[in-house]
Each structure stands twice: as C-alpha cells, then as structure tokens.
Design goal:
By secondary structure, this protein is of the alpha/beta class. Helices cover 52% and strands 14% of the residues. The chain is built from eight helices and four strands; from the N terminus they run αααβααββαααβ. The protein has helices at 2-12, 15-21, 24-37, 55-59, 64-74, 103-106, 111-126, 130-149, and strands at residues 44-50, 85-91, 96-101, 166-168. The chain has a four-stranded mixed beta sheet with strand order 3-2-1-4, sandwiched between helices. A hairpin with a 4-residue loop joins strand 2 (85-91) and strand 3 (96-101). Helix 3 packs parallel to helix 8 (130-149) and helix 7 (111-126) runs antiparallel to helix 8. The radius of gyration is 16 Å and the shape is globular. It starts with a helix and ends with a strand.
C-alpha cells in the first residue's frame, strides 16, 4: 500500500507544484546566493529541484539518493577542475533532500557533516520553508568550500556550471 501511495504522490506533482513552493523570484534569489558564494572559493554549487521521480525509478522503488547521484552526473557537477562540485537535490514528492559532493570535497568533509546539513534542510522542508532550507544549505556548503577551497586575493572562480537552480517536472 505504501508503494502505491508513493507512486500516486510522485505522479500527481509536477513543475507547477515546484513553482508554487519556489516561485521565479525565489529561484532568482537562490541563483544570486550561489553566484555570490562562488566569488569566494573555487567550488561549484548546483541546486536541483524535482517534483517527482520518473516512473522507472518508482517501479524499482529507488530512493532519492539514487536519483540525486544520477542528476549529479547529468548536470556535470563532477566535471569541475578541482573536483569540488556539490549538488543540493530536493525531491518535492518525498520532501527528501540529498547532498552529493565530488571526490575532492568528500576527501575534506566527513559523511556526518553532510548528514547534518541534509537534516537541517529536511527540517525546514517539513515546515514548508523550501527557499529558507535551500538558502541555508547553500550557506553551509559555501562555508565548507571556503574552508577547503578558498580563493587567494585577486583569484577568480571561472564559474564552470550555471548558478540557476534546475527544476525538473
């Protein structure tokens, strides 16, 4: 029964639901936050918001983590010069959050820190504060990237990935 309820929830939600909880202005503010962050470190932050999982994922009862890893690859977050890209993934239907960091940053940050970051986001999402949760995640990832990949004075981040959040219906 639980599987069928999940299937219905994922098929019911679409891009309009994403834009209901994160309108164009909110997405713009998040993009600006990512852009401002990337002025201080060599890392790249991508935000991906998905209404519901594709049917192929639902059939095999795939977790949000599997989809986040797939989107990490599809959005080429792994393809940065210093291997320090981070994907912040929100699956609206499950109100699930996943953080996927590239190998360079994962060598510097332990799994417990990533779990804590995701837990803080999940708490905000349960309360319906989606923009606030994503903004806090960007700020926390920014702090980690500044600690491990800060830019030297006069150095610039070439912005290897787009800053605008990706919305998948």
């Amino acid at each position: 029964m639980k599987h069928w309820l999940r299937l219905l929830r994922h098929r019911w939600l679409d891009e309009a639901d994403v834009h209901r909880v994160l309108d164009a202005a909110a997405l713009g503010r998040l993009a600006a936050r990512v852009q401002a962050s990337e002025r201080h470190h060599s890392g790249e932050i991508r935000i991906c918001i998905e209404a519901g999982l594709p049917l192929s994922y639902l059939r095999r009862r795939a977790p949000a983590r599997e989809r986040a890893l797939a989107m990490f690859g599809k959005l080429r977050v792994w393809d940065t010069e210093h291997n320090n890209g981070v994907l912040v993934y929100l699956l609206l239907a499950d109100r699930a959050v996943e953080i996927v960091a590239d190998r360079g940053l994962n060598l510097q940050v332990d799994a417990a820190a990533w779990r804590m970051l995701a837990a803080g986001m999940a708490e905000a999402f349960r309360a319906g504060r989606f923009e606030e949760g994503l903004a806090a995640a960007v700020d926390r990832v920014d702090a980690l990237l500044r600690r491990h990949y800060a830019l030297a004075d006069g150095e610039r981040n070439p912005n290897e990935l787009p800053d605008q959040p990706v919305v998948i219906a």
